[in-house]
Amino acid sequence: RLGHGPQEREKFLRIKQAVLESRVLSFTYYSTCGQTTNRRIEPMKLRFRGSAWYVHGFLPGKSRSSGSLR
Question: How far is CA 70 from the centre of its chain?
Answer without folding.
Answer: 6
